[in-house]
Structures are given as structure tokens and as C-alpha cells.
Design goal:
Layout: H1 5-32, H2 52-76, H3 86-118, H4 131-155, H5 157-168, H6 182-186, H7 189-199, H8 203-221, H9 228-232, H10 237-246, H11 250-256, H12 278-283, H13 306-311
Length: about 350
């Protein structure tokens, strides 16, 4: 899919408007309540207190345990067949563990050193915002920003190879959910946006968003198709209609990881949403079929070395013809479906 600059500008304009909606809602809330906050966001609302244990451990081991347990269930059900080979296993494990060791110092430095320098004396200035106001402010800011980060990595040729690792896996599941080039992860734009909002005093809503978003995105990558009953039973169809347009589900996100878009099911040129699928609905990048692709990954995948996938371009692949090797370019497919390039080596079309 060629990059349509007119559509891009229109969608960016709409996004800027969407970013302002939570701010406007918070303003109206205070106008209607004569400037008085009915509740503080510094503590969970009473009806959410039962989730406190989840919040307490989510940053340390909560999500890791959830991902591992779900992965064990997938393996027990034989959902990976024989595709989790030694090389694929190494890539998935390194991509899962390394960021959890290397990212915290980066984000801590940003929060404790960079932000106080860039915006001094603004710490906790948003602590007056009600819990749900902070939740929607961060949920929209975080997820809409990630939608754009994700979309541009599919539509801009230079950026594609930083995201390509995530699409190289020929399977779906917990094993590959964290499979990303480290540079793609380090520059996750929404990480720093959320860190900034936390510094401004929205820490608890940010944590709540993290919990909700993590469960949705892990569930969307899972090979356990939890959404199938909603499509099977007619009485659940109204719920399915809302659900698949609101959040990412296995059906919509698996389609994004398909190795082809020619079967009417795969849609790697869209379905970019992470927590909310709503963005794809709004911007016309979504495809809902309620079906699952027959195969995943990229057709030109050559099972590159873990260091090339995780740390390209610091390390290059030594496999001939790999898009991660020296002198090989990955360029987007034109609207007519032809691969455009000026390089003499083997090319890989960008999944745009």
C-alpha cells in the first residue's frame, strides 16, 4: 500500500482532535461540578479495590507470570506444532527477557533525569484529575500514539525493518508476542508519553491502563482464539459486533500477521490497533472477517540469526538474500502490486 499523503494528513488531523477529547471531558466535568473533584485518582475507586493485588505486582512479575502461564497452555494444546524450532525459540526468549532487563534503566533515566530537566516544577501538577479522567486521557494518548507508531513502521520503508522481526514468526502466540527489534522497542513513542503523564501526577491511571492494555494485547496475540464463541453463537453476535470494533481480538490481529492479503482474510496492510481496534475503524485501515489466516509471517523469511533480528542494524544477517543482510533493501509494494527497488540483490516487499 503506497503512502497516501493526503489521507495521512487527514488522519493526523482527526487524531489531533481525538487527543483533545479527554481534556475537554475533564474540563466539562469540573465545570459541571463547580470545580470540585468528586474523587481523587490517587486511590482506586471503591468498586475497583478488589483489583489492588493485581496492581501491586503487575510491574514486577504479574504480567510475566500471566504470559508464561498462557504460553504453557498453548504448548500443552499443541498449538505451535513443529514451528518453534531452536532458532525461533532463541529469538522469542531473548526478545521476551532482554527488554525487561534493559528498558527499565532507560525509562528510569527519562523519568528521573530528563523530565525534571525539560519540565521542572511540573511534577504531580495533574494530581487533581479524577481517576477515570486520567484513565481515558492516558488510554487514548498511549494507544493512539502506538497506533501511529505501528502504522508508520508498516508504511515507511526505512522503518519497516525495525518492526519486521515481529512479523517474521510463522506462528502466533505468547512465544512471539514480545518479538521485536530492540531499537523499535526503545523508541516506542508511547512509553515516553505515558512516563511524562505519570510524572505529571497520573501514575495510578497509567498503571490501570497498563493492566487493561496488556491483557488485551496478549490475548490478541494468543493462539487461543477466545473470540470464536462470539462468532459461533447467534445470541452473542451483537456482543461480537461491538467487541471486534472496540478492541483488538485474535481474529483481527491474527489477520495482521498473515503472510498474505490475497485470501480475503489476511490484512497486514492494516489492523494496526493494539488495545483499541477503534482506530482502524475510524481511519479505514481495519478489516473484520471473523476468520483466521492459514499461515503467518513473511513469505521471504529466511530464519535469520537472533542478533540480526533483535539488534539490526548493529548486527547484520549473514544469510544470503536476507533483508537484514548488507546491501539488501526492503521497499514497499506499489499500488499495482509490483516491487519497487533500485538494488540488485533480493528484495522483500514491505507489508504495508
Amino acid at each position: 500500500m503506497a503512502l497516501d499523503k493526503t489521507k495521512l494528513k487527514r488522519d493526523l488531523g482527526i487524531s489531533l482532535f481525538i487527543y483533545t477529547l479527554p481534556v475537554l471531558a475533564i474540563y466539562l466535568y469540573f465545570k459541571l461540578n463547580n470545580g470540585i473533584a468528586a474523587e481523587s485518582h490517587l486511590t482506586l475507586p471503591s468498586y475497583l479495590e478488589f483489583l489492588q493485588p493485581v496492581f501491586t505486582n503487575i510491574r514486577s512479575w504479574g504480567l510475566i507470570v500471566f504470559a508464561i502461564v498462557l504460553g504453557i497452555i498453548e504448548f500443552g494444546a499443541g498449538l505451535y506444532d513443529d514451528q518453534w524450532t531452536g532458532r525461533e525459540r532463541k529469538i522469542d526468549i531473548i526478545c521476551f527477557l532482554a527488554p525487561k532487563l534493559l528498558l527499565p534503566p532507560v525509562t528510569a533515566y527519562f523519568s528521573l533525569t530528563v523530565l525534571p530537566y525539560l519540565i521542572p516544577n511540573l511534577a504531580n501538577t495533574l494530581s487533581w484529575v479524577p481517576f477515570w479522567g486520567g484513565f481515558f486521557l492516558i488510554a487514548i494518548a498511549d494507544d493512539l500514539t502506538q497506533y501511529w507508531y505501528h502504522r508508520l513502521h508498516h508504511q515507511v520503508p526505512f522503518l519497516w525493518r525495525f518492526h519486521r522481526t515481529h512479523h517474521s514468526a510463522p506462528y502466533m502466540g505468547m512465544a512471539m508476542a514480545s518479538r521485536q527489534n530492540f531499537i523499535y522497542t526503545v523508541f516506542f513513542s508511547q512509553i515516553y508519553l505515558t512516563a511524562t503523564l505519570t510524572y505529571l501526577g497520573l501514575g495510578l491511571p497509567a498503571l490501570f491502563v497498563l493492566v487493561v492494555k496488556s491483557f488485551i494485547t496478549l490475548g490478541a496475540h494468543s493462539s487461543l482464539a477466545w473470540d470464536k464463541p462470539f462468532y459461533k453463537y447467534r445470541i452473542l453476535h451483537p456482543i461480537a459486533w461491538v467487541l471486534e470494533r472496540l478492541i483488538s481480538t485474535p481474529a483481527t490481529h491474527h489477520a495482521h500477521h498473515a503472510d498474505t492479503s490475497g485470501d480475503g482474510v489476511g490484512h497486514f496492510k492494516g489492523n494496526f490497533g493494539n488495545m483499541f481496534f477503534l482506530w482502524d475503524v475510524m481511519f479505514g485501515t481495519g478489516l473484520i472477517t471473523r476468520k483466521f489466516p492459514e499461515s503467518y509471517g513473511t513469505k521471504t523469511y529466511k530464519s535469520e540469526e537472533w542478533q540480526a533480528q533483535f539488534l539490526w542494524p548493529i548486527f547484520k544477517s549473514k544469510i544470503e538474500g536476507s533483508p537484514l543482510a548488507d546491501g539488501v533493501l526492503s521497499l514497499p509494494v506499489s499500488q499495482k502490486g509490483e516491487t519497487v527497488s533500485t538494488n540488485k540483490n533480493i528484495y522483500e516487499p514491505v507489508q504495508s
